[in-house]
Amino acid sequence: MGMKTTFATAALQATNTGFLRWLARGLSLRKQWWQALVRQAEKSKNATQQQHYAECLLAENPTHQGALVTLLKLAYKQRNGDLVTRYSQQLLPLNSVAARYYQLLWQRYQAQSAGLLPQALALLKDAKQQHAPTTRQINQLVLELSIEAADDASGAALAEQQLLGFIHTYGVNITLIPVVRGMLQRWLQVGNTDAAKALHDAVVAAIPTPELKDYLGLKLADLAGHWAEESPYWQSVLQSATSSTMLAPQLFNTVAPLMTTLHSNSDAAFDVRLNGDDAAKVMCRIESALGLKTGLSLLRLGDGESYGFWQSPHSAVGTTVPLPDGVTGAMVDDDQALRETIWWREAISTDLKTAMQANFVEALANADVIGVPAIYRYLRDMPPPNELPYSSRSLRSIELVNRHLLDWQQKNRFAKAALFTEERCHQTLFTLPNIQQLASKASHVVVVSCFKAEAIRPLFIDVPVSTVVIPPHSRVANLPITANLKDPRPMPYQLDALAEQLADKCAPGVLVLVGGGFAGKHLLNVAKQHGAVALDVGAMVDYWLGLRTRGMADLV
Q1: Are 361 and 401 in contact (CB under 8 A)?
Q2: Quick one: angle between helices 329-344 and 393-410, nearest 10?
Q3: Which distant-in-sequence residues (6+ apart) come within 8 Å of 394 by Cβ?
Q4: Which residue has the higher pLDDT, 301 or 21?
Q5: Cα–Cα distance for residue pair 129/111, rounded to 1 Å
Q6: Are 526 and 499 a contacting pair, CB within 8 Å?
Q7: Rounded distance, CA 97 to CA 83, Å?
Q8: Which residue in 150, 100, 227, 126 sits closest to 163, CA to CA?
Q9: H/E element holding 269?
Q10: Helices 329-344 and 491-503 sit at what angle, rounded to 10 degrees?
């Protein structure tokens, strides 16, 4: 073992890998060689290399559990169902608990979760009996499935019991916060504010350090606002957040004036998640446009929409908005370049980017309902106590968006009668039953997404449906229901053709549902200009088809 350990250490630090490969072959240490390379790739976060080396390790030793688990993790991250099935079946006779765990994860991703809870509970029992290394992950999966299945007060009570048992066993840490949020939302959704408050206080009391206690309190402040006396809720949340001694006040120096200004100078509905009046205000605006057969667009602005306000090198589009403290133009340039790689798998030309930004700015100026990054989004993306306020790409991006929105408001660049809401409004408002209700008031429905028409049409039985197919995002690219496009180019190169295709399908009384990311904002404006009602539904299309492409922090 001494030689093998020494070799693995040397492999991780090696500059002459050819020599070590030769040495590995001579010493019959090929397994250790591939193991070292897998660890090295994991440490450098190179998923492609990690997968390659794990496959080499598996070829060297077909029963190597570590290689199979690594490949299963990567297959799940890539949302590749064929590989998840293949590797889990190989692992099943070697490590039944781990194989079944990844099979459950894949089933959960593909379908509604409630029916999986009995399987997860049985798996947890087996994991505990075998003292399996994955017991904690399985326990958290059981907890999340319990919360997702809690549709009434009795279900919520059982889910809370699971949560408190988990905390008693493992304690409270940062990774548990989305689960706590999910449980609080369940109590609030079934109307039990007292239970939500009691759970909140119990969880906060279980945290050992003052810093983490303060951090968790702020992370849950938007939900805690629902049992505060102040109304609307966001005002009490802002007061709590800006008075925190843990975080620098400048973290909230944009969202406070923006929300206050938008609320005082225009119509606003920031509390759509748990405030029925605000939710109804937005839905009534949409229904009214459908009934009157007038054009309307609802456009949401998240962190990614900072791409629309920023040109490289280091210049804001049409404004002189200052950057947040500690954020440089070079950092924003890097963020933009990374987004292009994530969204479109390549850097696009300056001319194409400029054209897309012009389309985006026009779409925003014409939007009738605008979702802005509200205080809730700041709290969700707020970094841990040991990190700088804008160390997170997401957080500095929503700050950049809101600085531009405040500038727009001061210069009266928004549509005169625009209604403002929070950018996550789609998660509450655009559930499948709500969308089907809106569709019943339309003459025709057009869905802009990456899914096949045969997957979309069964969602709308009583109204004609057509589709405009766009290139897929990474979370669904490998699924059978995802459309195969003849044109392999990323969406920016196809945007003009997609706009023409959509325009031909639009008319007054048509409902257009767009799940197209940043590039899709332009299509919202195209639909409105042709008299349709266009909604920025985002990833909710995935959920209508039973795909869980977002975490519990976004949707319970």
Answers
A1: no
A2: 110
A3: 303, 381
A4: 301
A5: 28
A6: yes
A7: 18
A8: 150
A9: strand 267-269
A10: 70
